Amino acid sequence: MISAATLGSAAQGTGDSAEPSAGAAAPAAAAPGQKKLETVRIGYLRTYERTLALSVLDIPPEDIGLAGANVAIKDNDTTGSFMGQKFLLDVVTLKPGEDVGPAVEKMLADGDHYIVTDLSAADTLKAADLAKAKNAIILNAGAEDDRLRNDDCRYNMFHTAPSRSMLTDGLAQYLMWKQWRNWALVEGEHENDKLFAEALKRSATKFGGKIVAEKVFEDAGGARATDSGQAQVQRQIPVFLQDLPDHDVLLVADESEVFGTYIPWRNWIPRPVAGTAGLVPGSWHPASEQWGGAQIQNRFEDASGRRMESKDMQAWTAVRIIGEAASRTQSTDPEKIDAFIRGDDFTVAAFKGQRLTFRDWDWQLRQPVLLGTEDSVVTSSPQEGFLHQVSELDTLGYDRPESTCKFDN
């Protein structure tokens, strides 16, 4: 374990304080003449290790995700102060591969009824199963695996991270809107690369795209940046791609950061690139300023010294969900907050043009998908013309009839 810290600001207000219930921390001490503040504890459990990337600009910052959660704590305190509520973030950072069990158990013992996670799919699932024993809730802000929304779903596991299928559906809708129907696909050989490629294939079938050819890029290892690397890449990538048939778009599935960054401007047939390189789908974009986005970007940049990434927004949204529910119920009682989050009246605003809700069949947060290049947002999906009888957001990812999730309450 790298660190365990307790963060959060105590804003004081004039709201009445209720008696603390099971799972809620004791009221914070108040100055004479002021009413006590009820504390809501939120755990934040993540793995982080500085990793190599093909571009130094793609190395995740050390506070990725966590910076968004910290801004959300301040936002929660601002609203909560009027109702006698304060919020505390209990942070634990693990190294990849480290057992999450002891950290989850300590958080639960300390009274963290809500735990925001940025973990692998397997570790997220383990955290959810441990939390279930204490009737605690996991808010998955990191794992995009579709299995966590299908066969491996859990009644106490909510998702603010979009699923891979939501991301690839958002991309596929735009490509179809542009009438770029023929796609070539290059995928890596690692597990996450294959999962992203499978999601792209599913999206092609769903929306009428045609994958005309597939290639696998083998990871030969070796140094990612050498003096002769640029010249080698300039020669090797076009040769690798020269046998592809004609296509409208070249799709890249390289979550492992082995080759994808090298593809744009080096392909044999001059075509746009999309997927994990080129035009990339995400829950957020550092350049997004629509729908009040400039406001959150400015506050985030003031707090962290950088622009907001997708994982920052996913963590911010997870923490704000707890604050919104506590505010709407005017309570720090976990049972009341939990019931409200699962109820029909719950919504949360996240600077995406509409209030967001949870799908009640898998607890995935409905949300638009932003498609962007390195420095700009190109468009937002769902695209015009992709209709749905309930919500156009349900055209992204697994809809109710497609879902294999069966909650075991």
TrEMBL record:
Any Pfam family the entry gives: Peripla_BP_6
Gene Ontology terms: biological process: amino acid transport
Family the UniProt entry places it in: Belongs to the leucine-binding protein family.
Alphabetized CDD domains for the sequence: PBP1_ABC_transporter_LIVBP-like (cd06268)
Xref: SUPFAM superfamilies: Periplasmic binding protein-like I (SSF53822)
Domain Leucine-binding protein: residue ranges: 100-218
Top-level lineage group: Bacteria
Key words, A-Z: Amino-acid transport, Signal, Transport
Organism expressing this protein natively: Jiella pacifica
The protein's name: ABC transporter substrate-binding protein
Origin organism lineage: Bacteria, Pseudomonadati, Pseudomonadota, Alphaproteobacteria, Hyphomicrobiales
Region (Disordered): 1-30
